[in-house]
Every structure is written in structure tokens, then in C-alpha cells.
From TrEMBL, chains A, B:
Record's keyword annotation contains Phosphoprotein: yes
Any one Gene Ontology cellular component term annotated for this protein: plasma membrane
Signal peptide (from-to): none
This enzyme's EC code(s): 2.7.7.65
GO biological process: cell adhesion involved in single-species biofilm formation; negative regulation of bacterial-type flagellum-dependent cell motility; phosphorelay signal transduction system
Protein's recorded name: diguanylate cyclase
Domain Response regulatory: start-end pairs: 4-120, 156-273
Keywords recorded for this protein, A-Z: Phosphoprotein
Positions of modified residues (4-aspartylphosphate): D53, D206
Originating species: Parvularcula mediterranea
GO molecular function: diguanylate cyclase activity
Length: 456, 456
């Protein structure tokens, strides 16, 4: 694994030292000697991670971090603040500026590579989704991500440990928002099941556990698709460094050293939960995009695109199983007059009301689509010729019982005309819909508000 | 990094040995003692990789591999065949059955972990996209992936080496399909640039290179978003094992040992190119889905959804820059009559022709959308009130010059009516479109085929 690292420090020897360490491990390194240079480089070259010194003349590390985190093009890049060992206040300020992690000077190799690998791993795993999402946002299909929006949501932390409770964590909860609740589990197998069921939003694993190998628990979580990205925070004491390195290697998201600092705890929890919610949002966005591609926005019915895909499938299925299938074409009567007399808002209201009635008057296995302006198609699998007409009558009555109430208080009675066709052996989607459409045309010619079967 | 590994062998001691090795490195292991059991487990538990013994009673390894690769639920899981050392014929048969890689008995640790890590890394990186894609395929929005469909496409291999040519590769091309061409590059920096420009489909890196550190070249490719997933094949001699392990650690996709076996070469090339094309297809599918969400399928114009997102943005921009903006509402005259008299196919043809004329008669920066059945909206940024009417006239003439030729040879003359409105300080998208729509209504009342401005 490798990554592009941006090293920022106003002192050239510090920059050179980190650069040498990173390049020896085959990382690609960029360097900047000031906050402003760092921001310009980050925007232009999009590194995978930024190592940012706190003390710099001009823009200091905190200011630089704030600007990076507020910029649409750089907010997703993890920032590690490099602080002096004894500056606890710097850590708090860094977290408030949006930093993802810390390294203390002099920088230890283990900590350096552990932090860099762990932070870039998450970034690289989500880059694919993030790129697609950004494209969607540019097109206006998807909304932009906003990490801080997740902070107010209820979340649960599962702490897996042999102890009954870890006081520092309970104590830490003073600094944590009230909507985060902490649950303890002593049995690692039960914990794994709860995690697979998606119960906790964040898992703490005590590396001091003896009742079960804590590393086995980490790999057990990371080995499954569904929990591969679940946030895990390891809790380690100073003499558990070896296990910690192995845990980070297995993909643990972050760690806390004991004694646990309450403010650091709260900040790391917030970061991990934000990331998880962000990933969930990315995933949901794509499902939503796909839905947009097949759903008619105004009425919520399936659109013509879905009719041609899914309808073709239904008809092939009916041919294979030799089961009957019926098609209805439905058209709202005098719809143009509604639009012209009462305006488009009234027209839209009528379309929505009719669609709602169509949806409730067919079965879940039937396919109801809006095919054009005021026209709808319904495909009904396993529906014999004899009952198709009756079902169409039922649809007609369901719609015709609608009285649409306009915003100015006027009411409109709506009727529809329906054409019915049943599947022939030689039919494809186009031919059966055409016959239903011809029947619909005759229903219109015949005075509207009626059901007509296809010509015998 | 960890993964779930399915180990398949009819001899229990062999299974136990591999299981112990893998578990010691914190992999999760499932085991099967027959081909059929392996298939059932793979379908039910979806492992990240299958290690498959060739010689088994009943279904042998080749048959098992074929079945896994033909099943919709398991084709994407990498299969490593475990063969006897001297059985070259087994390798060829395994590749023909669709195996992704080989291990020879007795299995060496280095080779085992290198193969497992490298194959599961690619799978895990693409799992997110693949899951979303599968959801799209179930909805009928996206088509199913078909890896073998990529085999016939032209592809280029870039070989980075100090040599002028590597005879085995040229020689190997006898076994490779004719559409694959091989290009040599001695300068690693030039190679990196070519790779970043996306020129080669597959990169070979000679680990014996001395003019540039071949590992640095690997990390230089892997460190960039755009080339992170680019397929790289390392070429290593027996005494370059240490570099090879490091190269696999840096994310090289696969390797060939010298002397290079021609058939193995051809098979590995095919596998890598298939994977790359598959990833490209996944990426393209998502872009396509997003396009579907904003494009009207019939006419190719933007849809109402895009109008509300992008139109709102354009209007905000116009308010900010205090530049003018004009809106047109366009409606096809007597469209219902066309549909009723000539049928829906004729109606669709008219919609397409009119849309094509609208597209060509506005600027690239204008936003032309189909908002409903036969109605269109056009937003024109930086268009002053004085010229809006003239532009609308031009659009009217462009459309009215259309003669639509129906499939039965009849011709139809089409006209439109247009309402014009210009941006007021207090306008939002809805209010400006409403005024344009009211103007359109008056154009209709006034006898159609004309442009009317909003009421003064």
C-alpha cells in the first residue's frame, strides 16, 4: 500500500526528515513550507493525506486545517497535526479545527506509518464512491455531502472488554454529546453478532482482553463485506504496542492510548461516526440515483424506461411459464381542458391523485407506469383474459370516485378511459401495448369514461 | 488487511495445513471437502477468495471453477487453483476454466499470502461499486456485467524494462489474441507519464531494471487516484523474490516468473484486462445512471428534475451577477390531434424532431428541458429583455420549418407557440416560468404559431 503525502512545516530540516522516512517506505511525498503553500498544493494535487505542523508563521496549522476542511475540494483529505509532546491544548484546538489525527514530535516510525496507512486506507476505499458522488453533485442529481450534519444523530458505541466498565470512557462521556450511548459486552462472539446485525455505530476493542483474542475479533469484523468499513477504535496500553501495530495492520480505524484523555476520546468518536455516516450517505445516494432513473418524479409511479426493461422481462416470464398476462392502457379524460382551464398546478394535482388510485387498485406484483403526459400502462402477470376486463372496471371506478380539490377550493371530477389487451403467443411488449392502446382509442371515440377490450 | 478464504481439498490434512497457515495471519477460513460443498458454501457465504485443489473425486477443481465462474452470485470471487508442481497442463486447463491464479504444492508462505492479498485487494476495492451495480441490475437500470465481452477489444501493453525487448513476451504473443499490442519503454519517467495519460491498458514492470527503481515506479503508479487500480504485472527472476514481495505489498496486481511461460502469460494478460474493463464498465454505469436521472429518455433533452436543480442555480447566479436572464415556454400546437389521428409513434417522432430543433437553435449555455408531454422550457442566461423576443422568434421559425415524415410516407407540418418572460429582481424559478407560461397561454388563445411576451 502506498499513498501521496503532503508534508507541511516551516522548518526545512523537519520537512526533510519526514520526507526521507516516507520515501524509504515508497510513499510519494510533496512538501510545503507554509500554510498557504499547503492549501494551494492540496487543491491542485489532491494528496491522500496532509501532515501539518502546528507552529508556523503566517497561517498556523490550525488556521490551515480549518481552511482545508472548509474547502469543497479538500475537505475529504485527512489531516494529521504534528504537535509538541506536552501541548494538550494544541490537540484540543486541532480537533476543533477539524484535524483527523495527531502525531507528536519527535515523530516515531510506528505511529507515523500506522496513522498514515489507517487514514489513507479509508480514503482510498471510499474514493471510488466519492468520485461518482461528486459527479452526481455537479449534475445536480445528488446533494453535496455535509459531515457536520451527522453530529446530532443518536449513536451507539459498543465496548468489547473483559472489564465491567472502563471508567475513562464513562467519564469521557461528559465531553461527548448526550445522544451517544455506551454499551458494554464481555463476550466477543456476542459482540461480533451484534456488529454483523449493524447494531453499534462504533466499536471499541480493548487490546488487553484475555477471554478472546482481540485481534481475532478485529479480523472477524474486517473479513465481512458488510462490516469491512465499520469503525473500530482500539484501546491500548503502553505495553501493547506490538498488538496495536498488528491491529492497525488488520484495519482498525483508530486507537486511544490509556490513560484515555476525555477530550481526545470525544473528538475521535465524533470523527469516526462522521465517517461512517458519510459512507452510509454515499451508499444511499447511489440507490437514490438509480431510483430516480426509473421513477416518475411527479407521480412516484415507474417511468417509461422501467416499463421497457421490467415489462420485457415480465412478458418473457409469462411466455416461459405459459401463464396469462393482461395489459391496460389508461388515459385521463379531458386532461388538456383541465390544464388549460385551471392551470398546470391543477393538472399536476389530478395526475398525482389518479396515480395514487392506480397504485392502490392493482396488486404488488402488477407494474403500473406513467408512460407519458396523462397516459399510464399497467401490466398484470398471471391475469387471465376473463378477469382482465373486471379488473379494468375496478380501476375505472376507483379513479372515477376521485374528486380533486383545487387550491382555490374548487372541486374537479375526474374520469379515465381504459383499453385492455391479453398476451398472445406471438406478443412482445410493444405489440400487446399497441393493442391495448388501440382499444383505449376506441374507448375515447366511444364517449370516454369506459373500458374497451381489444378487437376480437 | 484480512479476508474470508474458502479452502477446498478432498484430503483433510491438506485443508488443515492451509487453514492453520491462514488463521495464524488472522484470515477467516471456511473449508470444504468436495467441489459441490465448495459451490454451496461460496453461494451462501460469499468468501473473498477460493483456494481450490485440482484433483478431487466427483467434481474436480476445473469443473468446480467453471461452475463458480458461470454463476451470477459467485463469478466475481477470485479462484486460485492449487496444482502439483510439474503439471503444466493443469495450469492451462485451470486458466481455461476461468481460474484467476495458481499455487503449486507444497504451498510456500510467500506465494500464498502474496496471491491471497493481491486478489482480495482488488475485490475489496471494487466491492462497493459492485454492490451498487448489482442493485441497479436488479432494478433493470443497469445491464449485467459480462467479463468475456471484453476479450475482443483492442488493448495495449506497456513493458517497462532496460532491455530493448523481452523475447518471451514477444514470443508469448503467439498465444495472445491479435488485438493486443506490445510497446516497450526504457525510461521509467516517460512510462509513468504515459500511464497517467491512461495510454496502456496493462503495464509490465521488469523488477530487474537498474536505470530506475522498479518499486518506485510501482508506488508512483499506485499513489495516484486515477492509476490506483491500473493493472500492473511484475516480471521477476528467481533471485528477485524479496523485491517481488515488496512489489506485491505496494499493490502490483500480478506477476510472472522468468522464464516466462507463453500460455501463462496470455492467460494472465487476459485476466488483468478483463478486470480493468470491468472496473471501467462499473464506473461508466454510474455516470450513465446519473445521466438517466436528468435526461428525458425520448427526446434526449434535460428533464423537469434537472430544470428545477440547475434552473434554480442559474437564476441565483443571474441575481448575484445582476445579469439578465430570459425564459421561454414552448408548446407544440395541436399535439393531441397528432397523437389521436396518427398514433403515438407519430407523436413521438414529432417530439423528437421538435426537440432536435430546440437544441440546435439555442446556445450551449442555455438550458433546454422537456417539462411535460408536449411542453418545453428554455432558460437563457445573459439574455437581455430586448433580444429575448427575437430569439424566441428564431426558435419558432426553426421548429416551424420542420416537416415530419411518418413511417407510412405521410408528412406533417409542425408549429409551436412560445411565451417569453424576463428575470425580475424578485423572481425565483417558479415565478418566471409561471409568467412565461401565462404568455404561452395567450399565444395559444390568440391562434397559436406565435411568440407572445409576458404582460407588461
Amino acid at each position: 500500500m502506498t499513498a501521496r503525502v503532503l508534508v507541511v512545516d516551516d522548518l526545512e530540516p523537519n520537512v526533510k526528515l519526514l520526507e526521507a522516512k516516507l520515501r524509504a517506505e515508497y510513499f510519494e511525498v510533496m512538501t510545503a513550507l507554509s500554510g498557504q503553500e499547503a492549501i494551494d498544493l492540496a487543491i491542485e494535487h489532491q494528496p491522500d493525506i496532509v501532515l501539518l505542523d502546528v507552529m508556523m508563521p503566517g497561517l498556523d496549522g490550525f488556521e490551515t486545517c480549518k481552511i482545508l476542511k472548509a474547502n469543497d475540494e479538500t475537505w475529504h483529505i485527512p489531516v494529521v497535526m504534528v504537535t509538541a509532546l506536552d501541548q494538550q491544548a494544541d490537540r484540543v484546538a486541532g480537533l476543533q479545527a477539524g484535524a483527523d489525527d495527531f502525531l507528536t514530535k519527535p515523530v516515531q516510525d510506528i505511529a507515523l506509518f500506522a496513522r498514515v496507512r489507517s487514514l489513507t486506507r479509508f480514503k482510498q476505499m471510499t474514493d471510488e464512491l466519492r468520485h461518482r458522488h461528486a459527479a452526481g453533485a455537479r449534475m445536480g442529481v445528488l446533494s453535496k455531502a455535509d459531515l457536520s450534519a451527522f453530529d446530532e444523530k443518536q449513536a451507539t458505541i459498543l465496548v468489547v472488554t473483559d472489564e465491567d466498565s472502563i471508567p475513562a470512557i464513562d467519564q469521557g462521556s461528559e465531553h461527548m454529546p448526550k445522544h451517544i450511548s455506551v454499551v458494554y459486552e464481555n463476550d466477543a462472539r456476542m459482540a461480533l453478532e451484534a456488529i454483523r446485525r449493524g447494531e453499534p455505530d462504533l466499536v471499541f476493542i480493548d487490546l488487553g482482553m484475555e477471554s478472546y483474542d482481540p485481534l481475532r475479533l478485529c479480523s472477524g469484523i474486517r473479513a465481512f463485506d458488510t462490516t469491512r468499513m465499520a469503525p473500530i477504535l482500539a484501546i491500548a496500553s503502553k505495553d501493547e504496542t506490538r498488538q496495536l501495530v498488528r491491529a492497525l495492520d488488520l484495519g482498525v480505524s483508530d486507537y486511544l492510548m490509556t490513560p484515555i484523555d476525555a477530550q481526545e476520546l470525544a473528538a475521535r468518536v465524533r470523527t469516526q461516526i462522521r465517517r461512517m455516516r458519510y459512507l452510509e450517505q454515499l451508499r444511499a445516494s447511489f440507490d437514490q440515483t438509480m431510483e430516480m432513473a426509473i421513477i416518475d418524479q411527479l407521480t412516484g409511479l415507474y417511468n417509461r424506461r422501467f416499463l421497457s426493461n421490467q415489462g420485457t422481462r415480465l412478458i418473457e416470464e409469462a411466455h416461459t411459464t405459459e401463464e396469462p398476462l393482461a395489459a391496460l392502457m389508461v388515459d385521463i379524460d379531458h386532461f388538456k381542458m383541465v390544464n388549460d382551464t385551471y392551470g398546470h398546478d391543477a393538472g399536476d394535482l389530478v395526475l398525482k391523485e389518479v396515480s395514487a388510485r392506480l397504485t392502490t387498485s392493482v396488486r404488488g406484483s402488477d407494474l403500473a407506469c406513467r408512460t407519458g403526459g396523462e397516459e399510464f400502462a399497467i401490466l398484470m402477470p398471471r391475469t387471465p383474459k376473463e378477469s382482465a376486463h373486471d379488473i379494468a372496471d375496478r380501476v375505472l371506478r376507483a379513479v372515477n370516485s376521485v374528486t380533486v380539490k383545487l387550491s382555490d377550493g374548487q372541486t374537479l371530477d375526474v374520469t379515465v378511459s381504459i383499453g385492455v389487451a391479453s398476451l398472445d403467443r406471438s406478443d412482445n411488449l410493444a405489440t400487446i401495448l399497441k393493442r391495448a392502446d388501440e382499444a383505449l382509442y376506441r374507448a375515447k371515440q366511444n364517449g370516454r369514461n369506459q373500458v374497451i377490450d381489444e378487437a376480437a
